[in-house]
């Protein structure tokens, strides 16, 4: 049976460019802070592309969207090289403070409302590795009043029935949810392993359309509302030492002011 | 193509006769020797199956067996000194007593050089693991020989420098072992060999004398450059205890890409093109054939490429760029990739470009994991050879055919004949993966492979060394006069023949 036009899926995948100063790469000799694509977002893009591989023509479009400074366009290009069809870049100036989850969720709602054919499925990372907020997906579901399935480790979509089965990883086991579309899904690490972008796809991605918008085009205010008081590094671990024998160990413990407690 | 083969064979016969000579007789370690060592070293630095210590033999087995579990020694005693002075006193005693010593670093050597042949004493450098100094202006690092390569990288990272050497064994191998094998590895294309980047060495000579050549000078033309003799000496001339090495500034931007090639013949023109377009930012150009790639995937080394990206590929090339500015490097790399993809007669089928640090690491993990994948698959006969680049495939194919013609190419004998290596340096790793090490397979391979290499005027050991594995084959790459002078040098430094006996020279 050919699915009717109304049953075709339009998927939106929000992605974020993150900067992780703590990242330590085994081979990369520069070993310093690098701009990266948020790994959970790559998983989200990968899942959308796999849905298309599975559902073929039933997936009508995969659109990626990012809200961030000019350089964020690289993140969109990567997603396009992985297989997304088009991008939306909500550009904010380099000098602007980074927006908070609520601002992002509102911007995403505005983007979704602009889509003429609507959006049936939003797949996002469960959190970004720079701020670890883990709020955007949930807030977006609230704003849109859509169902949400967070921390997904498996996603099966039935386009004809407009339904999805989502497996979530929870403490001590798995939880399976059946949800109606439109739906918000956030991705866990085990959902999939993102592919490498191949050269032909990277070339093709350069020609895929990216729509550029600003916060005011969307009528949203991205000014942060929460004031960050202080950011501190975790205390430095001091290196341990090796002792030659038990006597030395006891001597060291005494030196450190640790004494035996009599029972 | 084998025209010169019988010439080689004739030379070989003549040489074997000249080589016949007797090793000085060496002594076994006794309980008295252990008692003497106990005066030099703390108890924790001595492992010995001899009384009074009577350590369990199993505790010595990591020191007696090599990384491939191909070479097995029977040492009773392992010493782990912490200072150069301790090394000196141990060596002095062994020299007086005529006890053979095997210096051991991380024991990752691939030619059986790092384990005893009989019951020589093992002198492990693992406890000498301190950085002595680093000068961030000149980039000169001075470290104990037992420092693990990867921990030196970690030490240098906050100073924005890197060790000018990198290899798959980095987590275990030691800088002293690297120097002693003159290890090449993945960065040689960019930073050159250790003969250039090592500025000085501290060596304990076979009579216990400490030779202090630990200079931190870039230039020093004051007569014979003695340290060069110890680079690649594989522990046969003395024990390296300290190394002064020129670290390189860390690149600000790195990228890598794995390219899939329809046929081997394209590797060479691709290398030319990559050098031309990437010029100074090209930092690695590594080749691996399809069969060894499949082994890496099978044994979980790095994330596999997508099916459609490997379709029809006969071999792969990993290209790495390192440079000072991201935008500049990406522009160059993209330029190369575009021209490759859009060419009328494409050299590549396709390729994948890493998009994140984790993908960068993952692509490298495939290449770096090949050695490990091969050893997980079976027993490996490893031939680390230098031949003209254009002959890489010919060597692999000829070896496979040879084994086939001997009826040895099946699941119970030889499972795979694969090739990979450092194209940029003309260095091929020919690996024969067998179910078991057997005399038939060895006889089919040797001297066949060595003669093949000699017919191209190649080297039978490009970077792994001679060790115990290739002493008999040295003459395929070195003439009589060279070997004679190597022998004289050995005798000059080590008249009693205690330093790593049976290695390098027969
Ligand atoms: C997975 C893997 C990948 C590898 N990749 C490469 C590669 O890309 N390029 C390459 O060149 N090699 C490679 N090798 C082999 C290489 O020779 C060794 O990994 C390394 O250089 C040896 O260091 P080590 O500390 O383990 O030395 P060992 O194996 O302990 O010793 C090697 C030789 O040096 C001598 N020696 C060690 N320390 C000293 C010392 N302080 N003083 C005097 N003599 C000493 C030993 O007696 C022995 O003859 C690889 C090995 C493995 C297992």
UniProtKB/TrEMBL annotation, chain A:
GO biological process: amino acid catabolic process; fatty acid beta-oxidation using acyl-CoA dehydrogenase
Keywords carried by this UniProt record: Electron transport, Mitochondrion, Transport
SMART domains to which the protein is assigned, alphabetical: ETF (SM00893)
CDD domains tied to this protein: ETF_beta (cd01714)
Keyword Mitochondrion: yes
Protein's cellular compartments: Mitochondrion matrix
Cofactor comment: Binds 1 AMP per subunit.
GO cellular component: mitochondrial matrix
Protein role: The electron transfer flavoprotein serves as a specific electron acceptor for several dehydrogenases, including five acyl-CoA dehydrogenases, glutaryl-CoA and sarcosine dehydrogenase. It transfers the electrons to the main mitochondrial respiratory chain via ETF-ubiquinone oxidoreductase (ETF dehydrogenase).
Binding partners and assembly: Heterodimer of an alpha and a beta subunit.
Designated name of the protein: Probable electron transfer flavoprotein subunit beta
Organism field: Steccherinum ochraceum
UniProtKB/TrEMBL annotation, chain B:
GO cellular component: mitochondrion
Pfam family, one: FAD-oxidase_C
Cofactor: FAD
Record's catalysed reaction(s): (R)-lactate + 2 Fe(III)-[cytochrome c] = 2 Fe(II)-[cytochrome c] + pyruvate + 2 H(+)
Domain FAD-binding PCMH-type: 71-250
Keywords, ordered alphabetically: FAD, Flavoprotein, Oxidoreductase
InterPro entries: FAD-bd_oxidored_4_C, FAD-bd_PCMH, FAD-bd_PCMH-like_sf, FAD-bd_PCMH_sub1, FAD-bd_PCMH_sub2, FAD-linked_Oxase-like_C, FAD-oxidored/transferase_4, Oxid_FAD_bind_N
UniProt entry tagged with the keyword Signal: no
SUPFAM superfamilies: FAD-binding/transporter-associated domain-like (SSF56176), FAD-linked oxidases, C-terminal domain (SSF55103)
Source domain of life: Eukaryota
GO molecular function terms noted in the UniProt entry: D-lactate dehydrogenase (cytochrome) activity; FAD binding
Family note: Belongs to the FAD-binding oxidoreductase/transferase type 4 family.
PANTHER family tied to this protein: D-2-HYDROXYGLUTARATE DEHYDROGENASE, MITOCHONDRIAL
This protein's name: FAD-binding PCMH-type domain-containing protein
């Amino acid at each position: 049976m050919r699915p009717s036009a109304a049953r075709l899926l339009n998927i939106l995948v929000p992605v974020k460019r993150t900067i992780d100063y703590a990242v330590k790469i085994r081979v990369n000799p520069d070993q310093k802070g690098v701009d990266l694509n948020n790994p959970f977002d790559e998983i989200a893009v990968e899942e959308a592309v796999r849905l298309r591989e599975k559902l073929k023509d039933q997936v009508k479009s995969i659109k990626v969207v990012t809200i961030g400074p000019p350089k964020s366009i690289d993140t969109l290009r990567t997603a396009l090289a992985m297989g997304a069809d088009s991008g939306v870049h909500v550009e904010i100036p380099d000098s602007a403070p980074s927006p908070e989850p609520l601002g992002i969720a509102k911007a995403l709602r505005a983007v979704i409302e602009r889509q003429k054919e609507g959006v049936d499925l939003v797949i996002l990372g469960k959190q970004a590795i720079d701020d670890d907020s883990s709020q955007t997906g949930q807030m977006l579901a609230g704003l849109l009043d859509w169902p949400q399935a967070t921390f997904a480790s498996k996603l099966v979509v039935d386009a004809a029935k407009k339904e999805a089965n989502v497996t979530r990883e929870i403490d001590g086991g798995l939880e399976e949810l059946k949800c109606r579309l439109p739906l918000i899904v956030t991705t866990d690490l085990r959902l999939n392993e993102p592919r490498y972008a191949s050269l032909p796809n990277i070339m093709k991605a350069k020609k895929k359309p990216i729509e550029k918008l600003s916060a005011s085009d969307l009528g949203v205010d991205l000014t942060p509302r929460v004031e960050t008081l202080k950011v501190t590094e975790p205390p430095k671990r001091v290196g341990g030492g090796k002792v030659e024998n038990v006597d030395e160990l006891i001597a060291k413990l005494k030196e450190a002011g640790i004494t035996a407690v009599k029972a | 193509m084998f025209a010169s083969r019988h010439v080689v064979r004739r030379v070989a016969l003549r040489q074997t006769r000249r080589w016949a000579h007797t090793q000085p007789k060496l002594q076994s370690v006794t309980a008295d020797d252990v008692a003497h060592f106990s005066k030099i070293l703390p108890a924790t630095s001595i492992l010995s199956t001899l009384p009074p210590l009577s350590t369990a033999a199993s505790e010595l087995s990591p020191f007696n067996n090599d990384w491939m579990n191909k070479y097995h020694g029977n040492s009773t005693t392992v010493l782990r000194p912490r200072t150069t002075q301790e090394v000196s006193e141990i060596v002095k005693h062994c020299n007086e007593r005529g006890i053979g010593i095997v210096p051991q670093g991380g024991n990752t050597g691939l030619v059986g050089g790092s384990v005893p042949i009989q019951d020589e004493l093992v002198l492990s450098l693992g406890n000498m693991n301190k950085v002595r100094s680093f000068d961030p202006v000149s980039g000169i690092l001075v470290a104990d020989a037992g420092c693990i390569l990867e921990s030196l990288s970690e030490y240098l990272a906050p100073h924005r420098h890197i060790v000018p050497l990198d290899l798959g064994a980095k987590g275990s191998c030691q800088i002293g072992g690297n120097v002693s094998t003159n290890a090449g590895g993945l960065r040689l294309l960019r930073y050159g060999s250790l003969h250039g980047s090592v500025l000085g060495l501290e060596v304990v000579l076979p009579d216990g004398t400490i030779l202090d050549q630990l200079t931190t000078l870039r230039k020093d033309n004051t007569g014979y450059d003695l340290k060069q003799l110890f680079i690649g000496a594989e522990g046969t001339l003395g024990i390296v205890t300290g190394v002064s090495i020129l670290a390189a500034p860390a690149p600000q931007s790195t990228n890598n890409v794995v390219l899939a090639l329809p046929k081997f013949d394209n590797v060479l023109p691709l290398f030319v093109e990559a050098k031309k377009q990437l010029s100074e930012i090209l930092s690695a150009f590594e080749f691996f054939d399809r069969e060894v790639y499949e082994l890496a995937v099978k044994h979980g080394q790095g994330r596999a490429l997508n099916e459609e990206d490997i379709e029809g590929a006969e071999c792969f090339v990993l290209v790495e760029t390192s440079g000072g500015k991201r935008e500049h490097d990406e522009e160059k790399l993209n330029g190369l990739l575009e021209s490759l993809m859009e060419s009328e007669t494409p050299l590549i089928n396709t390729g994948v470009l890493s998009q994140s640090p984790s993908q960068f690491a993952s692509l490298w993990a495939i290449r770096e994991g090949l050695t490990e994948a091969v050893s997980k698959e079976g027993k490996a006969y490893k031939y680390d050879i230098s031949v003209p680049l254009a002959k890489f495939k010919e060597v692999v194919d000829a070896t496979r055919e040879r084994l086939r013609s001997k009826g040895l190419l099946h699941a119970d004998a030889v499972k795979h004949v694969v090739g990979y290596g450092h194209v940029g340096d003309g260095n091929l790793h020919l690996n024969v993966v067998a179910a078991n090490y057997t005399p038939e397979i060895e006889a089919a391979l040797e001297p066949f492979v060595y003669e093949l290499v000699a017919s191209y005027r190649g080297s039978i050991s490009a970077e792994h060394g001679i060790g115990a594995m290739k002493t008999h084959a040295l003459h395929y790459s070195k003439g009589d006069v060279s070997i004679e002078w190597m022998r004289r040098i050995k005798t000059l430094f080590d008249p009693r023949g205690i330093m790593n006996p049976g290695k390098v020279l027969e």
